[in-house]
From TrEMBL:
<feature type="active site" description="Proton acceptor">
    <location>
        <position position="251"/>
    </location>
</feature>
<feature type="active site" description="Acyl-thioester intermediate">
    <location>
        <position position="158"/>
    </location>
</feature>
<dbReference type="InterPro" id="IPR000534">
    <property type="entry name" value="Semialdehyde_DH_NAD-bd"/>
</dbReference>
<dbReference type="InterPro" id="IPR036291">
    <property type="entry name" value="NAD(P)-bd_dom_sf"/>
</dbReference>
<dbReference type="InterPro" id="IPR005676">
    <property type="entry name" value="Asp_semi-ald_DH_pep-lack"/>
</dbReference>
<dbReference type="GO" id="GO:0051287">
    <property type="term" value="F:NAD binding"/>
</dbReference>
<keyword id="KW-0560">Oxidoreductase</keyword>
<dbReference type="GO" id="GO:0050661">
    <property type="term" value="F:NADP binding"/>
</dbReference>
<comment type="similarity">
    <text>Belongs to the aspartate-semialdehyde dehydrogenase family.</text>
</comment>
<keyword id="KW-0521">NADP</keyword>
<protein>
    <submittedName>
        <fullName>Aspartate-semialdehyde dehydrogenase</fullName>
        <ecNumber>1.2.1.11</ecNumber>
    </submittedName>
</protein>
<dbReference type="Pfam" id="PF02774">
    <property type="entry name" value="Semialdhyde_dhC"/>
</dbReference>
<dbReference type="GO" id="GO:0009088">
    <property type="term" value="P:threonine biosynthetic process"/>
</dbReference>
<dbReference type="GO" id="GO:0046983">
    <property type="term" value="F:protein dimerization activity"/>
</dbReference>
<feature type="domain" description="Semialdehyde dehydrogenase NAD-binding">
    <location>
        <begin position="5"/>
        <end position="138"/>
    </location>
</feature>
<dbReference type="InterPro" id="IPR012280">
    <property type="entry name" value="Semialdhyde_DH_dimer_dom"/>
</dbReference>
<dbReference type="GO" id="GO:0009086">
    <property type="term" value="P:methionine biosynthetic process"/>
</dbReference>
Length: 362
């Protein structure tokens, strides 16, 4: 098949680097353009990143010699070279919104890792296994923007990717509310231990804006399309506390859940997790995990170092389901924050958009 030509806007940061590695040997996508700020423009990607490569996986050879373009000044040229772009820039939210909309109006679809457009009414925020039907709102967005090809689609916050997939198939039992405490790796802040020595042997009980995202974004994922907007769900309600912990990769969550009426048995819950398949699995998308939700019976699993890379970092690990004295049940869960939670989740979303006909090769 003819490969889609792909650009990465914000390719020098940690999530941008992860996008670069995920393009290597991708069966559908060909890395064509890397764009960043004006200070990186004109340099080879290897020179632009110089000393700041943050991943264990080596920099792909195909990326090293690509000359970095200016994400803002070269937007029109970039839009003409690619079929779509991933976006993972480090800018103010209003600047990100303007930049992403600029590309969309240049008829370049944007699949964004950024939070700037997550609450725009006609921008779908999608986890392909949970709410793939939300991509239909793109038709309304295109009417608003006056575009034929261009649009913006986003993925949700990285910390949601552990507990929301576990809660999702249990909504059928009348899930009423959940309490969640997340323990989030330092790569979620774009850091390594070398760059953030204060995090060694430390826990910080605050991540700016994270608790609000953890409580509100699931309601958009569980929402519905009404006319030309996505209306968020009224529940299940979630309350959250978020901690930064001394782990490099992997966001863990402790989750407590309460049901409205009939409480399912532990066996029923485990069966729902084991059998759950989403649109990504039905379509056999290249980045989709074959088994999305994995339950571990061992008392000490999942563990961050052992389980974050399960199914190439795209699966969710669950364990320690047990009754609770105040809620009905509690469990723990884990996902890889820069793979399932960030770049990998956006790549999977792009695969869905291509397969469903919203992104086409020129």
């Amino acid at each position: 098949m003819k490969k889609y030509q792909v650009g990465i806007i914000g390719g020098t940061g940690m999530v941008g680097q992860r996008f670069i590695t995920l393009m290597e040997n991708h069966p559908w996508f060909q890395l064509t353009v890397i764009a960043a700020s004006a200070r990186s423009a004109g340099k080879s990607y290897e020179e632009a990143v110089n000393g700041r490569w943050a991943l264990e996986q080596p920099m792909p050879e195909e990326a090293k010699k690509i000359v970095v373009m200016d994400a803002e000044a070269d937007a029109e040229k970039i839009a003409g070279l690619v079929d779509f772009c991933f976006c993972a820039v480090d800018m103010k939210k209003e600047e990100i919104r303007a930049l992403e909309e600029k590309y969309a109006k240049l008829e370049c679809p944007i699949v964004s890792n950024n939070s700037a457009h997550r609450w725009t009414d006609d921008v779908p925020m999608v986890v392909p296994e949970l709410n793939p039907e939300h991509i239909r709102i793109i038709d309304a967005q295109r009417r608003r923007l006056g575009t034929k090809r261009g649009f913006i689609a986003v993925k949700s916050n990285c910390s949601l990717q552990s507990y929301v997939p576990a809660l999702h198939p249990l909504k059928k039992f009348g899930l009423d509310r959940a309490l969640v405490c997340t323990y989030q790796a330092i790569s979620g802040a774009g850091k390594t231990f070398e760059r953030w020595p204060e995090m060694v042997d430390n826990v910080i009980p605050y991540i700016g804006g994270e608790e609000e995202k953890s409580e509100q974004e699931p309601l958009k994922l569980w929402g519905r399309i009404e006319g030309d907007r996505i209306v968020k769900a009224e529940g299940p309600s979630i309350t959250a506390q978020c901690f930064r912990v001394a782990c490099l990769d992997g966001h863990m969550a402790a989750c407590f859940m309460k049901f409205q009426d009939q409480v399912p048995s532990m066996e029923e819950i485990k069966a729902e997790w084991a059998s759950f398949r989403g649109r990504a699995q039905e379509l056999e998308l290249p980045s989709a995990p074959r088994q999305f939700l994995h339950y571990f019976e061992e008392n000490d699993r999942p563990q961050t170092r052992l389980d974050r890379n399960l199914e190439h970092g795209m699966a969710v690990s669950i364990g320690r389901l047990r009754p609770d004295t105040q809620y009905d049940y509690k469990f723990v869960c884990l996902s890889h924050n820069t793979l399932r939670g960030a770049a990998g989740g956006a790549v999977l979303l792009a695969e869905l958009l291509c397969k469903e006909g919203y992104i086409s090769a020129k």
